[in-house]
Amino acid sequence: MANDQIRAAILGASGYTGAELLRILAQHPRLKPVALTAERKVGQAIGAVFPHLAGLDLPEMVAIDQVDYSGVDAVFCCLPHGTTQDIIAGLPPHVKIVDLSADFRLSDPAVYAKWYGHEHKAPELQKGAVYGLTELARDRVREARLVANPGCYPTAAQLPLIPLIRADMIKHGDIIIDAKSGVSGAGRAAKEGALFCEVSEGIHAYGIASHRHAPEIDQGLSAACDYPVIASFTPHLMPMSRGILATIYVSMREHDLTAADLRNELRRVYADEPFARVLPEGVVPATRHVRGSNFALMNVFPDRLPHRAIITCVIDNLVKGASGQAVQNMNAMFGLPETMGLEQQPLFP
Amino acid sequence: MANDQIRAAILGASGYTGAELLRILAQHPRLKPVALTAERKVGQAIGAVFPHLAGLDLPEMVAIDQVDYSGVDAVFCCLPHGTTQDIIAGLPPHVKIVDLSADFRLSDPAVYAKWYGHEHKAPELQKGAVYGLTELARDRVREARLVANPGCYPTAAQLPLIPLIRADMIKHGDIIIDAKSGVSGAGRAAKEGALFCEVSEGIHAYGIASHRHAPEIDQGLSAACDYPVIASFTPHLMPMSRGILATIYVSMREHDLTAADLRNELRRVYADEPFARVLPEGVVPATRHVRGSNFALMNVFPDRLPHRAIITCVIDNLVKGASGQAVQNMNAMFGLPETMGLEQQPLFP
Amino acid sequence: MANDQIRAAILGASGYTGAELLRILAQHPRLKPVALTAERKVGQAIGAVFPHLAGLDLPEMVAIDQVDYSGVDAVFCCLPHGTTQDIIAGLPPHVKIVDLSADFRLSDPAVYAKWYGHEHKAPELQKGAVYGLTELARDRVREARLVANPGCYPTAAQLPLIPLIRADMIKHGDIIIDAKSGVSGAGRAAKEGALFCEVSEGIHAYGIASHRHAPEIDQGLSAACDYPVIASFTPHLMPMSRGILATIYVSMREHDLTAADLRNELRRVYADEPFARVLPEGVVPATRHVRGSNFALMNVFPDRLPHRAIITCVIDNLVKGASGQAVQNMNAMFGLPETMGLEQQPLFP
Amino acid sequence: MANDQIRAAILGASGYTGAELLRILAQHPRLKPVALTAERKVGQAIGAVFPHLAGLDLPEMVAIDQVDYSGVDAVFCCLPHGTTQDIIAGLPPHVKIVDLSADFRLSDPAVYAKWYGHEHKAPELQKGAVYGLTELARDRVREARLVANPGCYPTAAQLPLIPLIRADMIKHGDIIIDAKSGVSGAGRAAKEGALFCEVSEGIHAYGIASHRHAPEIDQGLSAACDYPVIASFTPHLMPMSRGILATIYVSMREHDLTAADLRNELRRVYADEPFARVLPEGVVPATRHVRGSNFALMNVFPDRLPHRAIITCVIDNLVKGASGQAVQNMNAMFGLPETMGLEQQPLFP
Q: What are the structural domains, with CATH classification, of chain C?
């Protein structure tokens, strides 16, 4: 290993986000996986868990307490929600951490307790955690030791909404987010509802008004205007593996604002961003155009209803919605270009 | 053929809605196809056009001007939009007609001309056409000679919305319909956008604020309250063949109304309906549960935003959204039970 | 319930084959479900287990030992392999039984023990069980009390092969069956390998030379020629819910035989069959053309290799490969027309 | 552009193989697209034709006669079969060419004329063309000016078969190839048979004994043993966008040979190959494990029939079966490492 390598541990490497991290890091010139953990797969090679990665030269899966952090600079934590707090609390101070779970996303312990059903176990750490929606928080991300990687839905919803709320262009009491997700968002655990036969050739809403990503979205929008925002949020499960589309219905703050004004503001904010892009006027974002990439494509359209607009934003839930943004954040934390390792183009068809 | 048979001609039998009519009529004890037309398939047997129907004893495809209407009682018209008006105008007075195209759906010729780009060619006929959303118009359907069969999206949107507007329970200036459709709605014509590789593993919105089903929805909602309603309507194309899900965001007319009130009203209106059903409280409608059937399943949920509710409604776009409702209407027009031929249960998985 | 109703119990009604039986029986004028059992769903209504069947008037799920067989004439047994033998051994003598598990398919107890890893628990019953490939065994089926319903792969393979072996037209030492199946064949149990993300956009072989349907196929082919046949059999898992395609590679017994001769023999054998059909020359069977129906479509094609032919046969694995054939058999056992309840046409698209 | 850049023209850049080349070259440090042609898309930016590539800095589409070859070193030719011969014949001598069409694959003009229905238009060029199955022909590829890139099916079939035939381990009169392909192999042209609704939830064989890839496979196998081999070849169309699985049934040349012997020979031949890999014993290749990558994964299994074996090989038809192998070949022709630009890992799920 070259001297300038950053040594990464991936805790919880046997799920889809873990695999996606390994796929991305295989192209990363600086970040190198040196430790992989997996509870039930200890001793297995990566090829046994993820045959598509069998060609990579990677360490065997070990138990989480077997990791020697003295040889680790960066930790990606892909553990289930709830189990992460204890583990991160026990990590040595020299490692930088991106946590892909929800454990450090909600800054208010009371909100966390309400939505997750138990008190937060590391409230001190949570105070220092930075919510890593990179494009909108990169200054803080660069200084952070612990970054809470945003959820997939919140990424797709907040990227277009936060700039418009910051610019005070849309009403914050009338934001409706209708989101559609591929099945990989449900993880690799064997559940009846994620079986091929239960998902294929169908769509349905779920978690209506009760999905845990709702308070995460609220938090981001509220911070943008310093006012307690509640958003309507309805996720849907779709017969595809990857991709999220958020279709967002908003009201203009002032009657003379138009969809074009909203679009121009987003273009201004994201003008120099490599991943967050506003499409040409009238071009509709499609999830197939971001598959496997870290892009977030968005656009704004006039609604039929007066003084309203429709915003759509697409991401790959496993990349910009999880592992890609995690690498983008880690790049920022180590002073690397954010695009490093993330230059792969979308896979279409 | 038994004496009590009703002899049906299907004009335009080589598309998906034509095939679906034939599938349904194969189980119908009274309606029998005696003539099938298809422009480019003249002289072909049904098995050459639709191998899945090869087992049926059906007449060959003929040209549309070869049909002898003296032996026809009922006409299902599955022709492309725009071509239908001339042909229906030329049908003999004794036949009853259900038109599955959009040609007679918009009662105002000016609205038709605006959205379809040309003057209506049979405005006199249009005056007498009945818009056949069966559950909500069956008295008029029973007396009609010409029924305009509703579009797929308008069926899914209007079934829950019209009763709530009639009951003056929701604001008509703030109705947002986010609809998701399978690909069969695009028909069988070979288009790049409907190729497997372009649709699979992806979703995107289309026709934002400009889809031709929007004025059809407006018309139905407006008639329900005698006020010109405009609805926000955004369709999406999904990787499945059949099914429409409409997720509808509404505002309560009065602050003391709840989602439960809306749900109760729909339960009251549809209490005795065999096809339109309100699911038990909290149960989410899923398109896979109506596949191949004439059911419309709906439910109402509280929104996170105060004084708002979320309604979802699912149908099979080819059945309740097209050929099934057409048979339901024809049943009503001939005094048969509406369920005749439509008793098939959904195909799942 | 009318006097001529045949009262059916469905043991194990909460799996896909149970649901499919209920879907079919909903259209059956004589066979009526009066008892449904399900181990983990006792007390639940059918709509809670299978929302697509919520509209049916069906009894609640009970535990298997709660069924009162005095009011039951017919039993469909959809229990897991291995658990069925004990239960069927305990049924009263007056009921007729179609068993959809593999428990009574293999007539030789030694073969059963070898492939299923334990001694058969009801060897006496097994002696009297009739292997219910209806078209080729209907005389014995009509007289049977216990019918072992064939496996899905064996149905698709044996329907074309047995007549050709009986006619001594193909070599029995050189039969290669390459079969492709939809995921519903794996049942509704939550397994990682059946998750949407693991199956979608991919295909792979499984159980190569070791699938339990292999000895079942061997048995049928051997009986057809009174010689111990071993067939090469390779199943593949495909991203679809329903359907099996068997592509079968055979060698002619005599050099002057052609693919057309084989095809003619199959046409002769299946000339009057309502479900087993030989397609017109050159027309390729496709699983989408049998979806939801009890059809088996087959055809024979010349191979590029001399003195060889390629046979393809398609069925819906849940219908002709399971529940449809079970109803067909029960019809035969009760002296009803075999097609009763099975007239539904395929659902396409 | 750096001095060591190799300037590439892509003729026919608006199809799936063209898009895939652009995706791959975006990661290639040396090969840079400087000219893109597309008949019907002249003047359009890549983002209008392939929105997923909108982020790339690429030239506009031009007509094929507008390309200035003085600034071009390498030509990838992705034109339709039949049109390519004239165009390649007109290219200046200094450019190196990889042709992805079938035009130069068949070295015998009589065979070409028989299968393609017309005389070859550039027989002199054809003589010098090298068939670019890279792993098995790299010495000749390195010296070639014109490489005929293999077809997708022939790549998956020949990679395992040629070494076994060269080693005289399998009978060449008894090779049966049952191949399954994703839909992208049919290209992006709008055809009814490639519509989502016609392909989804189904499988069927096509081109039985008549597919144009059959003589290409014959040619490769024949060259491997210097004997005219004919192989049985049956392709199937599957509901996925990418991937080919070839399941190959072979007979041992000698009775004492085993599947393990065959597997060992393939392991020996491909021991040092970065892309062609023999999986561990018993591990089944799956197309989802090569999606988006240039890998060919293969393995050998014992058949139930004595003295026979089953070989399976998977590739991504658009990568190793088309554009990836084209880049691999071009790398070889320019003395670059074959893996350059092709290091991306498979995209799963």
A: 6-150+321-333 (3.40.50.720), 153-316 (3.30.360.10)
